[in-house]
Amino acid sequence: QKEVEQDPGPLSVPEGAIVSLNCTYSNSAFQYFMWYRQYSRKGPELLMYTYSSGNKEDGRFTAQVDKSSKYISLFIRDSQPSDSATYLCAMTRSNDYKLSFGAGTTVTVRA
Amino acid sequence: DTGVSQDPRHKITKRGQNVTFRCDPISEHNRLYWYRQTLGQGPEFLTYFQNEAQLEKSRLLSDRFSAERPKGSFSTLEIQRTEQGDSAMYLCASSAGGDEQFFGPGTRLTVL
Fold it and tell me: Could you list the residue range(s) of the whole structural domain that residue A15 is in?
């Protein structure tokens, strides 16, 4: 079993919809959580970085962490066609440097 | 552009050949990482440098792989005697000591 499991998708939503992306993890030592966006044939781009349970908001993006359930989520409000990409969750331990990634969820926002 | 850069962006080679990739991190970032990403999967950690010291290598990094960061700035990743299973996107990332890693565009390797 992988340390990080991500809902596989793909997801296809109409423009303006809320996109919900989820990851679960098995290692309780993970303390820092990230969401990356990756366009086709490009490198991952850091979207959100959190280290505590609760919600963090940045514009249309909200990252949610529940350490007790080992569950993290990313919500995209008012989705746009430009949000069409693969979204990767990633996490790491305190004082560690290796990121452990989920397999990614591909999202398509239809105009 | 002051982001992470990688060269080449694409490499096609024949099985058995050696290839070398270069990564230039964000200026003054002391940490540099290599990851490998295959189709439909997330990146997997390969190795990590703090300044010029290589501090960890994943078991994914067989003895055909070698990475260097000679002056604590740019890094190279060499694959000797390439195999078809080496076909992947090779990603470089850098950080300033914190946990926020910034990725380059990647080098896509195809081994025929």
Answer: 4-110
CATH number of the domain within which A59 lies: 2.60.40.10
Q: Which residues contact B21 (CB under 8 A, 6 or more apart)?
A: B6, B7, B8, B11, B76, B77, B78, B90, B92, B107, B109
Residue B96 DSSP one-character state: S
Q: What are B22-80's pLDDT values in tens digits?
A: 999 999 899 999 999 999 999 999 999 999 999 989 988 889 999 999 988 999 999 99
- Which of B99, B100, B103, B110 is the mutation pick for testing A, counting most A CBs within 10 A? B99
Domain count, chain A: 1
How many angstroms separate the CA atoms of A68 and A55, rounded? 14
Length of chain B: 112
